[in-house]
Amino acid sequence: MHNYLNIEFLTMFMYGIPNTLSLNKRKIINDPIYGFIRIPDGIIFRIIEHPYFQRLRRINQLGLTDFVYPGATHTRFHHAIGSMHLMDVALTSLRNKGIDISDDEFESALITILLHDIGHGPFSHALEFSLIRGIEHEKISALIMQLFNQEMDKKLDIALKIFRGTYPKKFLSQLVASQLDVDRLDYLNRDSFFTGVSEGKIGFERILKMLNVRDNEIVVEEKAIYSIENFLSSRRLMYWQVYLHKTTVAAENLLINIIKRAKRLAGKGKLTARNRALQLFLLNEYSLEDFQEEKDVLMAFLSLDDYDLWGAIKIWVDHDDRVLSELCRMLVERHLFKIDIYNRPVPKNKVDSLRKVFIEKFPVSKKDASYFINDGKLSNSAYEMGNSNINVLMKNGDIVDIASASDLPNIKALSKIVNKYYLCFPKSVSL
């Protein structure tokens, strides 16, 4: 198992000095979205420099979306830094409006948003429920924050409460996770920029300046109603054009099936990954309790990134198992599944018929054919009414849900959940 060096040793090793952080009084990052972002001295700089956080440089924000939009190679590291910057802007604006936010709360909120996605595994959401089944990345993020807290003399106590939603000032947690949080504001702008999908761009500055607090909850002032409507519309468009783009869905289905096949072979002793951490997750179905009680499991997870998976997939192209080999070759060479989209669930007889045709062309068992023929559902809802609503502070002092506050019908329409269904299969197969 990989043993991580603590930050004190790293600082001494890199700079030849004790961990005073005196070199960081004017540390900045030049971000393509926001320009120069200031990195505060002290614990935030220590977190960013830590190996756990640096790992985010090697995890793509959008998984395999660069198969569709070649510019979409930005990472979880970019997103975390950008979200921290927007949190800084939001908190400063609230302070200027007289909202009581202590220095410790300010710093803790920055830490929380900085670490909110640190529990993502390789390829972000694409493998969240396949390499590790049934464990949301937020649960792992909380465990990693606990590791930081132990290593940094309990200085993340408030940050952990904000992350879990248990801190008395509820509005701080809402800025991290709600239907109008700085996480969403950053990823919409960032993903729009790197994909080139201009429809995703939002007026984040106006929204942040229009935030306020009433009854311990975040509200947005009435003057920002149209900016919120644009934000929700952009989110819906980004889901269909980027996050749920049919080619991205096809590529991610291929990747998921590769992991499923590799797990099956590893369980039968027919596959050994050269990466020990990857081999652990191929052989075992770890529960959240395993992550909590066995530090080696969490350390193995923290050593994995996109590079490890790509390295394994390139090797598996030459594996003796024909199914795994073909799936890996398809992904490496970008010979992706064809994907058809439907407004209704795909009939079972159509899936079975496609599998039958595939078996005739590519002699495999009926069970193995399921790695090449898949169906599923896509859901898109820009605004979920009743779930941490976006509340508007009207000029007369009333607090009204955004769907009722707007005189435009769009927001109510955006709250409707739209389901679409897909069928993935090799391009060489047709009925």
Counting helices, strands and paired strands, the structural category is alpha+beta
In spatial order, strands of the major sheet run 3-4-7-8
Count of individual domains: 2
Strand content: 5-15%
Helix and strand element order = HEEHHHHHHHHHEEHHHHHHHEHHEEEHHE
Unreliable stretches covering 5 or more consecutive residues: 1-24
Looking at the structure, what is the overall shape? globular
CATH superfamily of the largest domain: Hypothetical protein af1432
Write the layout of secondary structure elements.
Layout: H1 7-15, E1 28-31, E2 35-38, H2 43-49, H3 51-54, H4 76-96, H5 103-115, H6 137-151, H7 157-164, H8 170-176, H9 182-195, H10 204-209, E3 211-214, E4 217-221, H11 225-243, H12 246-267, H13 276-283, H14 288-293, H15 295-301, H16 306-316, H17 322-332, E5 338-342, H18 348-361, H19 366-369, E6 374-380, E7 391-393, E8 399-401, H20 402-405, H21 410-414, E9 418-425
Parallel strand pairs: 4-7
Antiparallel strand pairs: 1-2, 3-4, 5-9, 6-9, 7-8
